[in-house]
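Project standup — Tuesday

K.O.: blocked on the structure for the chain from last sprint. Re-posting the sequence here as requested.
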Amino acid sequence: MGEFDRPFLGSSSGLGKHELRFFRKLHRNVYVHRRSCASAILRAQAAWLWLGDNGVLAGLSAAALHGSKWVDSDRPAEAIRRANLRSVPGIRVRSDSLLPGEVVTIDGMRVTSAARTAFDLGRWLGHDDAIEMVDALCHARKLRVEAITAVAQAHPGARNIRQLRSVLSHVDAGAESPAETRTRLVLVRAGLPRPSTQVHVFDKLGRFVARCDLGWDRWRVAVEYDGEGHWSAEHRRTKDIRRYTQLNRLGWRIVRVNSELLREDPTEVVENVRVELRAAGADI
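H.V.: unblocked you, prediction finished:
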């Protein structure tokens, strides 16, 4: 695909109208090679070309450009406008105000800063969706909640500040996937103690043994989320067997969770964890 492996302006491509017919049109005057794979970053790049000098990439588009994983490629690009622009199919344009220091440049594109992006995600998305996306952004950028709170304090009249505060109270940058975030929320909302994320386990000689998704060092109970890779790759299963054997020898109790259990019967997940915590001495 070469020079056309990312979105480009038809008017400055050197291609004629007949030649442009062989490319996919994303927005007015914005094209991409037909074989280019859709992604949140490609959508952001296309939106940037469409915006010109009239806006700043924000929200999910900014999160993707900051390195956040799990941004759905089917969701519209997002931007904060400078001029009187309206949303178009595939691009959602907002009119929020931006303060000095809240815009950075990534790959030649103006993008909201990581903290400002998290501030927007926490207000624009649904509550739990926002927690998942802010978790992912904080993990990607090692962003602290205090930095997001500072942005909120600079925008006291912004919409949905109350939701943002609730979102930030649940955020944990240790979550490495939306599934881990959802598991954590299910446990905490059921009244269990808030688990730590990415729990490192060492043997009696101080040698590293394993890192668990969620857990409580005090009671040596861990919760592991099994994604599809755990079942489709034999070497992963072998590695897990050895890993869990070592953890059991060190006195750790492991509760395993997968997407079906989390989706279809979260109460079973909670009860399994509760049983192990109580067996380990937790007063719950």
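K.O.: great, moving the ticket to review. The mean pLDDT is 94. The chain has two domains: 37-170, 178-279.
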